[in-house]
Amino acid sequence: MEKLENFVGVYMIEDHLATKNLIPSHKVYGEKLVEVEGKEYRIWEQRRSKLGAAILNGMSTFPFEERSKVLYLGASSGTTPSHISDICTDGKVWCVEFSPRMMRSLVELTRTRKNMIPILDDATKPQNYLYLLEKVDVLYSDVAQPKQSELFMNNMRLYLKPEGIGVIMIKARSIDVTKSPKKIFREEESKLKISGFRVLEKINLKPYEKDHMAIVCELGF
Asked: By CB atoms within 10 Å of each CB, which of 22, 69, 106, 120 scores lowest?
């Protein structure tokens, strides 16, 4: 087992990413559990997690730490948020999800993972959950809809600390199926820059995710 340098709480076990299991013996999405030196780790399946794919594809800005407060937009049933929960053991992960069906699975998961807080709401209306959370260190967005960059920026302005970091997973086919993904990526990056955000890095998620790109940015001043 190898601890990844500059990636708090992330390990490499036999060519697989892994996180130390916050709730030993509990699986979240059928992932493999591995015991190393008396500690249990969850294999982080990169084909099930865009953040995992970004790490393997060379991500260098990893903003998650033990005490990080995270707002996660598009949490679904909790696959990637659960690994962030493993990492941010003394922090909080507010998980916004629009689908009641996915929320049922997410709520069940948060019964044991006390640092995860489920919020059933629409990420395009960030004012709706203003009373439920505080300023965060990291804002992570994985929402499949045409205005995904706009909702990301609106949430960033409202919830991100001045020194915080935002990560958005751009889904090209959810924006426009008639344009090439490369053109869409350029256009979405341009939207961020024009709106005053500073792009720190871009990571294409091939071969793990088709037509997806991770963009890491921070608030401009």
From this structure: 120
